[in-house]
């Protein structure tokens, strides 16, 4: 009971960008203000970077992550299923990373929770071809993250090849392959490019003329209209 309350307290603080008063925290947790103060002191003693004081409010500084120790059976199953999906359908670096994540989680999660989740049979279907499994899209993710333009050599379904300058904003992962979403300067619009048809690509020094978040909003808006 107390452990669950401490985790809930951390969740509330993590989701708030501004200090939360002790009385508001106590009200959300359904506990007394004295118990709330003791809980905060306990978390601080355990290493949680919580700043604040009575009358001022409390805030959890960025960079602190909840320890993956108290997953419910359903949460553990969701995590295992998600990591197995990424392992099967992600490109090579993501697939390897998902296996490492799952291995780390299995080392720290209580054995009872892990056994309960493992007892539920589930599957993710057949993964992509060996050729797709060896794909490495790290440079595309880097371009998206840094908001840099890409020059790509792209082969259309009719086998014609063209050179494009695109502003990459997202990558879609599907059972049949992966799709790079971006604004194409030549087409002056959003286009979807299958990554297995990209014959060559180069990260340019030029930054995209719009922020990626703004482009994502525009892309989603056009898809819904």
Instruction: Profile the largest sheet.
Output: 5 strands, antiparallel
Topology-level CATH name of the largest domain = SH3 type barrels
Strand order of the largest sheet: 6-5-4-3-7
Shape: extended
Distance between the termini: 48 Å
- In N-to-C order, the SSE pattern is HHHEEHHHHHEEEEEH
CATH class of the largest domain: Mainly Beta
Strand content: 15-25%
Alpha-carbon Rg, integer? 23 Å
Count every beta strand, where a strand is a DSSP E run of 2 or more residues. Answer: 7
Poorly predicted spans: none
- Percent helix: 40-55%
Total number of helices: 9
- CATH architecture classification name of the largest domain: Roll
Label this structure with key terms.
225 residues, alpha+beta, Arc Repressor Mutant, subunit A, SH3 type barrels, 3 domains, five-stranded antiparallel beta sheet, two-stranded antiparallel sheet, 9 helices, 46% helix, WH_DNA-bd_sf, HTH_11, CBASS_pafABC_assoc_protein, HTH domain-containing protein
What report would you give on this structure?
The protein is α+β, with helices and mostly antiparallel strands and 225 residues long. It has three domains: 2-60, Arc Repressor Mutant, subunit A, CATH 1.10.10.10; 73-127; 137-224, SH3 type barrels, CATH 2.30.30. Helices cover 46% and strands 24% of the residues. The protein has nine helices and seven strands, in the order αααββαααααβββββα. The protein has helices spanning 2-15, 22-29, 33-45, 73-89, 92-108, 111-118, 130-133, 138-146, 212-224, and strands at 50-53, 57-60, 148-155, 161-174, 177-184, 189-194, 198-207. The strands form two sheets. A five-stranded antiparallel beta sheet has the order 6-5-4-3-7, with helices on both faces. A two-stranded antiparallel sheet has the order 1-2. Strand 5 (177-184) and strand 6 form a beta hairpin. Helix 2 packs across helix 3, helix 4 runs antiparallel to helix 5 (92-108) and helix 4 (73-89) packs across helix 6. The radius of gyration is 23 Å and the shape is extended. It starts with a helix and ends with a helix. 19% of the residues are buried. Residues 5-58 form the Helix-turn-helix type domain. Residues 137-201 form the WYL domain.
């Amino acid at each position: 009971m107390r452990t669950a309350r401490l985790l809930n307290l951390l969740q509330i603080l993590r989701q708030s960008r501004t200090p939360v008063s002790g009385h508001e925290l106590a009200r959300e947790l359904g506990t007394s203000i004295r118990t709330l103060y003791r809980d905060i002191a306990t978390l601080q003693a355990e290493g949680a970077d919580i700043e604040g004081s009575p009358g001022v409010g409390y805030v959890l500084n960025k960079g602190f992550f909840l320890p993956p120790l108290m997953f419910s059976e359903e949460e553990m199953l969701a995590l295992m299923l998600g990591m197995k999906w990424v392992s099967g359908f992600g490109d090579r670096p993501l697939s390897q990373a998902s296996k490492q994540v799952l291995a780390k989680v299995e080392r720290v999660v209580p054995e009872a929770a892990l056994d309960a989740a493992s007892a539920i049979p589930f599957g993710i279907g057949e993964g992509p071809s060996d050729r797709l499994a060896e794909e490495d899209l790290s440079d595309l993710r880097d371009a998206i993250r840094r908001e840099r333009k890409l020059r790509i050599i792209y082969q259309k379904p009719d086998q014609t090849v063209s050179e494009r300058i695109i502003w990459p904003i997202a990558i879609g992962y599907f059972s049949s392959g992966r799709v790079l979403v971006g604004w194409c300067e030549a087409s002056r619009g959003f286009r979807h490019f299958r990554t297995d048809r990209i014959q060559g690509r180069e990260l340019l020094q030029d930054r995209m003329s719009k922020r990626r978040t703004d482009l994502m909003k525009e892309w989603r808006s056009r898809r819904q209209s």
